[in-house]
Write a structure and sequence with these properties.
about 120 residues, mainly alpha
């Protein structure tokens, strides 16, 4: 005869194994997301430093070119102000929003694609 206790024990083992696999999967996805986020912060920080030094270099170059100690910095500041103004005016652009969302989704969802290609 079939022992109900053994069936329950087997089912409990299967469910616990499945829960363990799901926990492991969630952990892998979380750590993958976290590592990509840390990488994005590091890349952003380095790009910020690059833009800072390029801006200072351009400002000093324009200051020498105009022979005015402040005019080069003013020109660079106005360029940044114009860039911010253009971005502010195009903030409601559906095309710009879709491109930004698409780039972020591609960056953060590549984890799943990498796992599938590894298998």
């Amino acid at each position: 005869m079939i022992n109900v206790g053994e069936i329950i024990k087997t089912l409990r083992g299967i469910v616990e194994a499945r829960i363990g696999l799901i926990k492991e999967e969630i952990q892998e996805e979380f750590f993958g997301f976290l590592s990509r986020l840390i990488l994005l912060v590091i890349i952003g920080s380095l790009l910020l430093l690059v833009f800072l030094f390029l801006s200072l270099s351009l400002a000093f170059f324009l200051s020498q070119l105009t022979q005015s100690p402040y005019l080069g910095f003013l020109i660079v500041a106005l360029m940044y102000l114009l860039t911010v103004l253009v971005l502010y005016l195009s903030r409601d652009s559906l095309k710009l929003r879709q491109r930004t969302e698409g780039a972020l989704k591609n960056f953060f969802t590549n984890i799943k694609n990498e796992k599938i290609s590894d298998e």
